[in-house]
UniProtKB/TrEMBL annotation:
It comes from Microbaculum marinum. Residues 15-37 are annotated as: Disordered. The lineage of its organism: Bacteria, Pseudomonadati, Pseudomonadota, Alphaproteobacteria, Hyphomicrobiales. This is Phage terminase small subunit P27 family. It holds the Pfam family Terminase_4. InterPro entries: Phage_term_ssu_P27. NCBIfam families: sm_term_P27.
Length: 156
């Protein structure tokens, strides 16, 4: 499908751009949850996954359906940390066996990981600019059953 990818309804509601005639009535509505880290993650990635998942769930944007995207994020984050360590160790430029000076290949890996992380962070609202586009709607006031009872009694 060409064009921008559609936003989920809950994000349209938060941003204030929802139009009733354009809403997907059959859109799945997953519940906020903190999923378990996938088995394929190493120990450091599992810890990062658990921490970020809990943070996102507290803010209402983590569901079980998002576990794959978050797992990709923590894997890429781990790769970025490894590449950054190599750039620190060797520097941004290195000498080849022929005494040519080139950009450290780990710098390219680190930069690519940063770009991928930024994309995923934006999807989860983890950057200031992605958060600035979200407007929280005022919470609907919960009906008080006792007030309802009293108001029905006055009408009778």
């Amino acid at each position: 499908m060409a064009g921008r990818k559609p936003l989920p309804t809950h994000l349209k509601l938060l941003k204030g751009t929802a139009r009733p005639h354009r809403m997907n009535k059959a859109e799945p509505k997953p519940v906020v949850a903190t999923p378990e880290p996938p088995d394929h993650l190493d120990e450091a990635a599992r810890a990062t996954f658990a921490g970020v998942a809990a943070l996102l769930a507290r803010h209402g944007v983590m569901t079980e359906l998002d576990a794959g995207a978050l797992a990709r994020y923590v894997v890429i984050r781990g790769r970025w940390l490894e590449a950054e360590a190599e750039v620190k160790r060797r520097g941004p430029v290195v000498k080849t066996s022929n005494d040519n000076i080139i950009q450290n290949p780990f710098l390219a890996v680190a930069n690519r990981c940063l770009a991928q992380m930024a994309q995923i962070e934006s999807e989860f609202g983890l950057t200031p600019s992605s958060r600035s586009r979200i407007r929280m709607a005022e919470p609907a006031e919960a009906a008080d059953p006792f007030e309802d009872f009293l108001s029905r009694g006055k009408k009778a």
